[in-house]
Amino acid sequence: MDASGGLMNSSRLSGRTSSNLPQSTHQTLNMYALAAGAAGVSALTLAPLAEAAIVYTPAHVAILGPRGLYNLDLNHDGITDFTFTNTTRFDTDQAFWNLFVNCPQGNAVVGTFVYRGFPPDARAFVAGAPIGPGEPFFRKDAKLATFYYGGGGPSSHGNWLNVTNRYLGMRFQIAGQTHYGWARLTVKVTNSPINIYAELTGYAYETVADTPIIAGKTSGTDVKEISDTGGASSAAPATLGMLAMGSPGLSVWRRERSSGQPLGILSLQN
Length: 270
Known about the structure:
This protein is mainly beta. The protein has helices at 23-38, 240-244, 247-259, and strands spanning 54-64, 67-72, 82-90, 95-103, 108-112, 121-122, 130-131, 137-138, 140-149, 155-157, 163-174, 177-191, 194-206, 213-214, 223-225. Residues 3-19, 28-50 and 235-270 have low confidence and may be disordered.
């Protein structure tokens, strides 16, 4: 098997070697260099800007059941690196609510083995934890949280039950090289009504191959923050505050969505 949600304080980047920054980031940095050249500033003084080590993207995306889906492009290259699903399934006498992460392209997430035939439990890292070589990475599906209702009564399982701003450890490929990253999520499991509410609040990756990344690191001279380009999602953004209200909150959300008004966004911080 094989830190926080705050905005960064500085746009200066370190001189560590980078690997395949997204095209949009290169274009932005080139614009800085051209502007500085016109002002008579040597391009050499701006070299560190093009050599970011960590690329951080803030986000506010609700991944809602019963058929929630979000395709995460961790490094903004147009390729889905991880897919989050929030689904509900009913049988004759039982029901399942599941929050999963799928790992296409041979990518993987850090988890713990359950037992043969069942997906591993995705680990929920705390801010400041290192994510890199040596961790137990699993490919294919991994479970974040699940709720079962049927014979024997209701039960819930998973490392992501009712957590705020925890970090999913990720390993993926850029041009055949291994890179590490994280996705920050808040997950709420409710009994009345029964549902799993998940919100993606940011993600980041290390541009230097085979180099660990610190969960939740979003500021510093080695961090470059960029805007979320948006992933394919089956649900528009909504706040966990609205969702926790149940039907009244969802009514407000649907009304804002249908009217074209901006949806309220919950600011989540550690």
